[in-house]
């Protein structure tokens, strides 16, 4: 699974990139989504690479996102009690492992696909350069560090 975090706003944004961000359900800065690793999403990520940070997400980081930022319909918090009563999973770690392996999806469990994060603690390096050039945009080997700073 890939996590995608939007880092740049929409001023002077080309319409095709705006549409692609809308298809990914990333409408605002500091919002995060988790998507499958398939060619369709890879193409969309490639198109918006100058506006987002993305990378593979591990089970622990996904469990932390679900626990702290997971929401249900009507903006209710995702709780362990809800998981035990309405899903076959009893903990956030179990759910994260199932989502990462592909045996479960957020949509099937009626969890909102967007995680609204805080701005990064201690700030970002820069949103004008890629991660390889010393910035924060594009592919991250350690996206978990950025997400944990934005928890």
TrEMBL record:
Coiled coil: none
Record GO cellular component, one term: cytosolic large ribosomal subunit
Record has Ribonucleoprotein as a keyword: yes
The keyword Ribonucleoprotein belongs to this UniProt entry's keyword annotation: yes
GO molecular function: RNA binding; structural constituent of ribosome
Superkingdom to which the source organism belongs: Archaea
Large ribosomal subunit protein uL30-like ferredoxin-like fold domain span: 2-52
Family designation: Belongs to the universal ribosomal protein uL30 family.
Self-association and partners: Part of the 50S ribosomal subunit.
Name the UniProt record assigns to this protein: Large ribosomal subunit protein uL30
Source organism (scientific name): Methanothrix soehngenii
